[in-house]
């Protein structure tokens, strides 16, 4: 089975074509944010490079957030539309999990994060099990980094904690202040998402369905206007 | 220094498929089915039309009820709904038309102007389907779409003048032929529909306010003195922010004096001012450009006051007027497919690098 995988959820654009036994092609850039302009040309190029007709694809995988709202939507809208038009399944994979998979084999907590401004991060907490990154905590969330770090210390119980992601460098000082030597950092080669990882999650889950219509982004937070409206509603200030 | 020639031997499989599909269809002489996609604001819409004129389906997933609670369209909320609805809406349009993607010759999508996040969802979906199924991709200007809604009702005759009025646009467009647009005038500040919404809010009416003002205006008398913004004598441009301020000042001053102004009369006076300027400039443009037709387009074309006034003036001047039915006036994908058909006939397709352009210009079409 051949799967096309995409990640445009942050600054990185990554596209891959994978089969069960090998990655046929993968292209990743970490420079520009014009994903809307470049994504489909990259897809076309990778399909041509691997001699794959779109009809030969058994399914799609896509990073469905968290991340840049627009970036996530470009990936999800493109992947679900291709999958729907070819009548094959599409699997959404957490953008954080994709990066956690870079640390396959690491023993300790794996903590991918994206900066979410005002001291906040989008983050989750994983452990490596075989080829998979398994959540050590059930939910991913947007949280203040200074609230997240003590929680991680409790969860890790003395084990090392590996921080992954392009934005880790923005917060490295804070992390080290709180966790000292327990905090570990990876070479830049492990900080960006690789679409091939998404391809393998998708391959595992394709038989579960993956209806294109139902694939939606996971933003981890409401649009600002919605959040305000809900708060007002809860305070009894507005009627439906 | 001369131009260089670069021999390029590589053509993508996608490009070859598009070329072959187009040539095969043109030779066959079979009807042309175009799938239209529109997501420039708060309606997710998909449609299938035949030969540029016949609507087989026109599905509109409106978000109006969601945005009502915010008092206007919230771009992030609109974009989120588009991505949730996009494939369902397209599937529904095909099913309703009794077609599959195998029957579709081209996908026409709005790529501007509009809300960038919203546009990008439709553009991404259109490109993805185009790539996956080897179907030619056509980029359509939203206003060109509004104008071509008229062709779904009656054949266009050139030269013509189109008055485009909506919540985001107020434009007078001159067309000499299919696909050629020249903007004679446009608003310098608020769009006409925007002025309606703001005045409606001042009169405590819900969003969107246009239909409420229109209804109220028919119950009142235009007896409140309000300005007409004609601008320079030869200008076809519009300006509605002064009028809007005048309405707000009138209300404010009356309140300070403890007087009440009959809202219906104020609505009638406001509508009188807006429609007088719109209609007179349209007629002047039609006369000076020898127009064989006047087309009304855009969401505000549903406004009864504007329709009646324009109809009366066109009749008096003997200029044929075309107004699409209400469902084709507001944002919809059938009009996008109709405008896309003109480009299909000329073989004007977009590459997979098509982007959403929030301030796309009409004259570059």
Automatic annotation (TrEMBL), chain A:
Keywords: Transferase. GO terms for cellular component: cytosol. GO terms for molecular function: transferase activity. Residues 23-229 form the Gcp-like domain. Transmembrane segments: none annotated. PANTHER family: TRNA N6-ADENOSINE THREONYLCARBAMOYLTRANSFERASE, TRNA THREONYLCARBAMOYLADENOSINE BIOSYNTHESIS PROTEIN TSAB. This is tRNA (Adenosine(37)-N6)-threonylcarbamoyltransferase complex dimerization subunit type 1 TsaB. It comes from Brevibacillus fortis. The gene is tsaB.
């Amino acid at each position: 089975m051949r799967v096309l995988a995409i990640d445009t959820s942050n600054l990185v654009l990554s596209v891959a074509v994978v089969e069960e036994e090998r990655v046929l092609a993968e292209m990743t850039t970490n420079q520009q944010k014009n994903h809307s302009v470049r994504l489909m040309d990259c897809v076309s190029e990778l399909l041509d490079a691997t001699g794959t007709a779109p009809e030969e694809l058994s399914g799609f995988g896509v990073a469905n957030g968290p991340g840049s709202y627009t970036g996530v939507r470009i990936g999800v809208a493109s992947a679900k539309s291709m999958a729907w038009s070819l009548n094959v399944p599409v699997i959404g994979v957490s953008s954080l999990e994709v990066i956690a998979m870079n640390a396959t084999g690491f023993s300790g907590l794996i903590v991918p994060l994206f900066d979410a401004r005002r001291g906040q991060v989008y983050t989750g907490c994983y452990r490596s099990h075989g080829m998979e990154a398994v959540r050590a905590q059930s939910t991913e969330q947007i949280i203040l980094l200074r609230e997240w770090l003590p929680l991680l210390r409790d969860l890790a119980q003395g084990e090392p904690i590996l921080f992954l992601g392009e934005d880790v460098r923005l917060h490295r000082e804070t992390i080290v202040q709180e966790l000292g030597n327990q905090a570990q950092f990876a070479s830049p080669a492990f900080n960006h998402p690789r679409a091939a990882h998404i391809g393998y999650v998708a391959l595992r889950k394709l038989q579960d369905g993956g209806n294109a219509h139902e694939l939606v982004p996971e933003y981890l937070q409401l649009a600002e206007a919605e959040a305000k409206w809900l708060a007002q509603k809860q305070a009894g200030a507005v009627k439906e | 220094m001369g131009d260089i020639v670069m021999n390029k031997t590589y053509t993508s499989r996608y490009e070859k498929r598009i070329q072959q599909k187009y040539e095969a269809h043109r030779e066959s002489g079979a009807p042309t089915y175009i799938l239209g996609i529109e997501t420039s604001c708060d309606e997710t819409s998909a449609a299938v039309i035949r030969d540029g004129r016949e609507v087989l389906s026109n599905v509109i997933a409106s978000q109006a009820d969601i945005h009502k609670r915010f008092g206007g369209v919230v771009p992030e909320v609109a974009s989120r709904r588009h991505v949730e609805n996009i494939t369902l809406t397209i599937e529904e349009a095909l099913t309703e038309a009794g077609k599959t993607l195998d029957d579709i010759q081209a996908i026409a999508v709005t790529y501007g102007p509009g809300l960038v996040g919203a546009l990008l969802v439709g553009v991404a979906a259109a490109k993805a389907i185009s790539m996956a199924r080897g179907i030619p991709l056509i980029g359509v200007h939203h206003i060109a779409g509004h104008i071509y809604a008229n062709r779904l009702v009656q054949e266009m005759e050139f030269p013509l003048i189109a008055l485009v009025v909506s919540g985001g646009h107020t434009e007078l467009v001159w067309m000499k032929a299919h696909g050629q647009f020249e903007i004679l005038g446009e608003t310098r500040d608020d769009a006409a529909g925007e002025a309606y919404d703001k005045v409606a809010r001042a009169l405590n009416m819900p969003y969107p306010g246009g239909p409420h003002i229109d209804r109220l205006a028919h119950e009142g008398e235009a007896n409140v003195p309000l300005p007409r913004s004609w601008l320079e004598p030869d200008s076809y441009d519009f300006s509605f922010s002064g009028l809007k301020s005048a309405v707000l000042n009138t209300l404010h001053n009356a309140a300070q004096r403890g007087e009440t102004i009959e809202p219906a009369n104020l609505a009638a006076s406001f509508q009188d001012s807006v429609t007088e300027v719109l209609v007179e400039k349209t007629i002047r443009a039609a006369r000076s450009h020898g127009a064989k037709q006047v087309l009304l387009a855009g969401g505000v074309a549903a406004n009864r006051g504007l329709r009646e006034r324009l109809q009366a003036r066109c009749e008096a001047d003997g200029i044929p007027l075309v107004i699409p039915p209400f469902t084709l006036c507001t944002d919809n994908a059938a009009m996008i497919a109709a405008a896309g058909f003109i480009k299909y006939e000329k073989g004007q397709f977009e590459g997979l690098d098509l982007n959403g352009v929030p301030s796309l210009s009409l004259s570059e079409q």
